[in-house]
Every structure is written in structure tokens, then in C-alpha cells.
Amino acid sequence: MAEEEVIAMERVLTLELVRVTERAAVAAAKMRGRGDEKAADQAAVDAMRNELNRLDIRGRIVIGEGERDEAPMLYIGEEVGNGDGPEVDIALDPLEGTTICAKNLPNSLAVIAITRRGGLLNAPDVYMEKLAIGPGFPEGFIELDMPPAEIVSRIAKEKDVRDRDVTACILDRPRHQKLIEEVRATGAAIRLIGDGDVAGVIHTTDPEQTGIDFYIGTGGAPEGVLASAALRCMGGQMYGRLILDSDEKRKRSERMGIEDPRRIYSEEDMASGDVLFAATGVTDGNLLHGVSFRRGIAMTHTIVTRSYTGTQRWVRARHVVEDKFEFID
Questions:
Q1: Three-state SS for 220?
Q2: Which of 94, 169, 287, 290 has a CA between 20 and 30 Å from the CA of residue 147?
Q3: What gap in Å lies between CA 117 and CA 277, rounded to an integer?
Q4: Contacts of 162 (CB under 8 A, 6+ apart)
Q5: How far apart (Å, rounded) are the C-alpha atoms in residues 324 and 329?
Q6: How many CB atoms lie within 10 A of CB 14?
Q7: Phi, psi (rounded to 5 degrees) for 68
Q8: Distance CA 245, CA 260 (A)
């Protein structure tokens, strides 16, 4: 990577990127627990888009809220930024876990990842098989097609614990019933989550804090790209394979540049180059506190991290806001 590009990315790494997720998280937090997923998501989208357009970047949304006809803002292909600075591709979810936020349950986030142009997998909106572990394991330690019993056994042996001391994170879906039974048959524990599999993958990066050793199961492919970006910065391994089980999905993936429908992607295949990642808690979670409000003040908790340096910054911020939770600049 050219030195000038590294310097440009360093500028984006600073508080400007943090502000993007902070603004989205505060906007979404206003709708916490009110049962209106669409309103919470729209508030986060509007806030994130406004802040993105202040950045010194020439940005293109690669993973966003959907295709243009389905998403009026932050759609795939939308150009954002003020037109200055480096050309970058962006993966984002202004409100990861809309249902979680609407019900005021743990681990809802506002997340964004930025890398060089062409550095993110242009994943279609289909399911993806996923397997992820955190840092500290040998390269190639796990494989996507490895039986759950072998994954649990390997992790337990590497950590010098019993199988029953290993915990998997799995989305609570009917399609995962057989997988859940296989994992439980080993004696390992399972943390079932109702939504938010980006957060689920991120939790593998700090098992002592979160209690999660590995993530397994099928979920959205766009979320897989975002999760891979996080692991590139925070450490860990992730593997994914698109589930293209219809002619329409295969044709759509071909139009998006997917040449091998059975390819297994690593985290570097899905998010390459110098990756920047930021996440702000919307609701309280295992790694990040949610937004809290006091009179005229909103308090946020954010992690911003970068693959080029491996630096992780944990940012606690107090923001002056109006009664409508809008920032005062």
C-alpha cells in the first residue's frame, strides 16, 4: 500500500469514523424498546448517511441497506463522502439487530467497515454458511466443513479445557436444529441469539469477556462480510460459503462477480487491504455498553480498530444533545 494511502486511511481512522457510528447509535437508541423496527432502522440510516457525507472520502457502499429500489438511502452502489480524499469501499449496518433494538435486548450495534476500493466482497443478499473463532489459534485451525464435534474437541485441546467448557454462538433458527443437537452432543454449551450475528462473530475475539469460543451456522452474507472486516482488525479466523440454492440466486451472484458458487471465502477474501472497523453499542452488550441518556447528554461506547496497525481504541464519549436527541455541533 502506498504511503500516501496509508496516511489518508489514518485520517479516517480518527474520531471522524467514530462519529459515524456514534450518531447512528444515538439516533437508534431513541427508539429502543418501542417495538418499531422500521423507525429505529430509518433513524440510524439517516444519521449515519449525514455523518458519512462529512468525511473526506470518495466512498462507495458495497454492503448496505439493500439495492437502490429497496433502500432509498445507503443502498448498494450509493456514493458517499464529500468528494475529497481516498476512494474507499464501505460495508455498513446502521442498526445491526433491529429486532434487538426494538425489544431493547442485548448486543444491538451500529457498525461500519472501510477499505480500499475493491477490497470488500460484493456479496449478494443470500444466506452464507459461517464459522469463526477469535485470535490465538494456528492458521487453518478450523475448516468450514469440519464436523462440530471436531471443532469443539480442537478448541478444548488447544485451550487445555474440557469439551464442556467450550461455548458456541448460534442463531436461534429452526434451520439450526440439527446443528444445535450436534454441538450439545459434545457436552459443549451454546449461546443462542435471536438476531445480530455480526455481534456474535465479534464476541469470539474476547472469549474471557463474552464467554463465546466460536460462531457457527448460516446467516446473511452481507453480515458475513462485515463480521470478516471486524476479525481482520481484531484478530481471528472466519470462513464462509454462499448458499446459492436457486437459479435466480446463482444468476444474481454471477452479475455481482461471483465466479465459483461453491468457493469457501476466508476473512481476507471477504475484506482485504487496510481495513478500518468501528462499532458503537446501541443496547448494552457483552463488549460494548449501549447509549445512555441524561438531561441534555448522550453517552456512547465505541470500538474503532484497524488491520494495518492492529490498534484497538475504546472510546467513551459524552455528547451534548437537544431534547430530541439531536447533536449540538
A1: strand
A2: 287
A3: 15
A4: 156, 187
A5: 14
A6: 11
A7: -55, -40
A8: 13
Determine the residue type at 154.
R
A 10 A CB-CB count for 146 gives 15
Indicate if 61 and 161 belong to the same structural domain: no
Res 119 pLDDT > 70 = yes
For 263-289, letters b (16+ CB in 10 Å) and e give eebbbbebbbbbbbbbbbbbbbbbbbe
The residue-averaged pLDDT of 200-222 equals: 96
Q: Residue 184 has which C-alpha cell?
A: 450439545
Cα–Cα dist 257/260, whole Å: 9
Categorise residue 66: left if φ over 0, alpha if ψ from -120 to 50, beta otherwise.
Answer: left
**Whether 266 and 315 share a structural domain:** no
Same domain, 251 and 209: yes
pTM for this predicted structure: 0.92
Number of domains in the chain: 2
**Measured distance CA(92)–CA(59) in Å, rounded:** 12
